[in-house]
Amino acid sequence: MRYSPERKEAILKKMTPPMSLTIPELAEQEGISAATLYNWRKQARARGQVLPSRSATPDQWTSQEQWTPR
To answer: What CA–CA distance (Å, rounded) separates 66 from 55?
Structure first.
């Protein structure tokens, strides 16, 4: 299934604070496979977006996640 760039970005945004949803949570909520969401996150990171690896508060982010411009 193909998803619009707007839908992808809206879902990726849910991975960031303040929502900080995990991929399993998003998969259930959005009806999209976790594998697809992991792939989207990987692609977004390759473009330079900072997306936490887990549902975490900023004080638990890696140094790259804390200091990379968004």
So the answer is: 14
What pTM did the predictor assign?
0.72
Distance between CA atoms of 59 and 39, rounded to whole angstroms?
Answer: 25
Residue whose structure tokens are 């909520």: 29
What is the distance between the alpha carbons of residues 18 and 30, in angstroms, rounded to a whole number? 18
- Sole residue written with tokens 């949803």: 21
Cis omega (within 30 of 0) on the bond before 5?
no
Q: Is 28 helix (H, G, I), strand (E, B) or coil?
A: helix
- Show the tokens assigned to 43: 């692609």
pLDDT digits (tens, 9 = 90+) for 31-61: 999 999 999 999 999 999 888 776 445 555 5
